[in-house]
Design brief:
The protein has about 190 residues and is an all-alpha fold. The chain has 10 helices and 2 strands; from the N terminus they run αααααααβααβα. It starts with 11 loop residues before the first helix and ends with a helix. The relative contact order is 0.17.
Length: about 190
């Protein structure tokens, strides 16, 4: 049996996410945008709720195509508000449209969103050496800086806790426990 981070044990969805995705550095704008959208919906909720609905989100939000989402009109927003397959929070749905618009602007200004977002960790993952789940912080100085910058860019639902969760998910920080089989594997991507 593989040793993994304790939060990933006991649930197949968490285990698969942990074993295949969590902490792997992402540099492609499309999956980074998907992560921002999903983290918007995760705010105040358990991540498992979002993971269970992820395929529904992909369908409802046009495969997380930022160009399409940035142009959603009231009819599309109403359709999403009534879509039982996703989290039907009107504020979060509207935020996704706004955040898509800012995402596209940043892409244009910086060449890629990836170049912009990775600056907060100096362009490469921060490798932590945590031994217990209790050592995982909810925020960091980097997530504080990222949150402030994204808010100044006009993004919503990007508090420092959400930013830190985003950083963990997209591999900007390696927060796998040192005794987890993924720790070394993910560190090699750095």
């Amino acid at each position: 049996m593989k040793n993994r981070c304790s939060w990933a044990n006991g649930n197949d969805i968490y285990r698969d996410y942990h074993d295949k995705e969590w902490g792997v550095p992402l540099y492609d704008d499309q999956p980074l945008f998907e992560a921002i959208i999903l983290d918007t919906f995760q705010a105040g909720l358990s991540w498992i709720i979002v993971l269970k609905k992820r395929e529904n989100f992909r369908k409802a939000f046009d495969g997380f195509d930022a160009n399409k989402i940035a142009n959603y009109d009231e009819k599309k927003i109403e359709q999403l508000i009534h879509d039982k397959g996703i989290i039907r929070n009107q504020l979060k749905i509207r935020t996704c449209v706004t955040n898509a618009q800012h995402f596209l602007r940043i892409q244009k200004e910086h060449g890629t969103f990836s170049r912009y977002i990775w600056q907060f960790v100096g362009g490469k993952p921060l490798i932590n050496r945590r031994k217990k789940l209790s050592e995982l912080p909810a925020t960091s100085k980097e997530s504080d800086t990222m949150s402030k910058a994204l808010k100044e860019e006009g993004f919503k639902f990007v508090g420092t806790t959400i930013c830190y969760a985003f950083m963990q998910a997209v591999g900007m920080v390696n927060d796998h426990m040192v005794d987890c089989f993924r720790y070394r594997e993910v560190s090699q991507h750095s």
